[in-house]
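Structure first, sequence second, as always.
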């Protein structure tokens, strides 16, 4: 095990297609600004209902990223 230091960032991704797409959107966007992303944890899953059907998905994520040495 190495002696790294990590930080957490909490973000929310959204999609009208799927939970997986909401996760991918969040990570893809975050990776444009945050370096050394190494893991994620889904902390919440929500959705929006319209006319008795799922219209939108929201997924709250905790992202772990490593500080540069």
């Amino acid at each position: 095990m190495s002696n790294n230091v990590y930080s957490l960032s909490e973000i929310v991704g959204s999609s009208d297609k799927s939970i997986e797409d909401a996760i991918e959107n969040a990570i893809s966007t975050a990776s444009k600004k945050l370096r050394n992303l190494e893991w994620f944890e889904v902390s919440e899953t929500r959705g929006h209902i319209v006319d008795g059907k799922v219209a939108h998905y929201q997924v709250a994520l905790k992202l772990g990223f490593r500080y540069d040495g």
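Margin note: The helical segments are 19-30.
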